[in-house]
Amino acid sequence: MGQVRMTRKNRPRKDPWPRSHTGPLTWWRDHKRVARETLHFVSARPGTSMLVWLLVGIALALPAGLFLVQINLAGMTTAWEGRPGLSVYFDLGLADAEIAAAAAALLARSEISGVKVTTQDEALREFQTYTGLVNALDLLAENPLPASLRATLAEDASLVDLELVAEFAGRSAGVSEVVVEKTWLQRVTDITRVVSRLGMMLGALFGLGAVLVTATSVRLAIEARLEELRVLKLVGATDRQIRRPYLYFGAFYGLGGGLIAAMLISLCLVIVETPLTHLLGSYGQELKMSGFDPKFLLVLLAVGGILGIAGALLAARQRLTDLEIP
Question: Global pTM?
C-alpha cells in the first residue's frame, strides 16, 4: 500500500476567525473594559457630567436630609431627659409628711419613672437665682411660692397613662394644681409624622426626577453613538452587549449624584450646627446629630446608583428596541 504524503497544499488551514471562549473570566474582562471606557467617556466631559451629578445630587439630598431630620426628631422624643410628665403644686404651708406621702404614692405607680420634690424654700431660692429679685422678696412676710413635685413618665408609658396619673394626683390631699407637660411632645411627634410623610412623597418625586435626568443623559449618549451601535448590531452584537455601556453610564451618574448629595447634606449640617447648638442649649441639651454615618453614606450611594441604572435601562430600552439597520 502506498503511503499518503501530507503536503503543504492539502494541510488543513487555520481558522482566521477563531471562536471566542466564553466563561466567567471573559465576562469579567468585558465588564472591566466597558467600565473603563465608560469612565473615560464621563471624565472626558466634565461639564456635562458635573451638571448631571448636580441634578441627581440635589434630587437625592432633599429627601435624604428630611430622613435625617425625621430620625433625629424621633430620637428627641425618646431620649430627651425632660420626658413628658406632670407637675403637682401643693397648698401653702402643707406639711412635709403629706408631701412625702403624695410623692411616694406617685412613685409607686408603674407609669412613673421618677419623682423630684421641690420644697417651698428650694422654690424660693430658685426663683431668686433666676430673677435676681433677692431684696424684693426679703420684704415679704412669708414665702409666697408653694412646694411642688415633678413626676416623669416612664419610657413605655403613653399619653393616656399620663392623663390617668394626673387624675390620680389631683385627688390627693393638699394638691392645689396639676399641670400636665405633654404639649411639646405632641408637637414634636406631629412634626415628626409630617416630616416622615413629606420625606416619602419628596423621595418618590425626586427619585423619579433623578431617573428621568439620567435617562435623558443616557439618551443623548446613545444618539451620539448611534452609527456605532448600528454597526455593532449589524455584526451580531446582542441587545445586552449594546446596552451594557449605558448601564455603566447610569451607574456612574447615579454614584456621582449620591456623592454630591452627601456633600450637600454635610454642608447644610455645618451651616445649621451653630444655631441648632444654641437652640438645644437653651433647653439644657447637647447637639447629638445621629444618622449621618458611613452606613447612611453607603445607602445614599447605593440608591443613587440604582436610580441611575434604572434611568439608563429606561433610555436604552426605549431607543435600542427601535434601532434600525440601514
Answer: 0.59
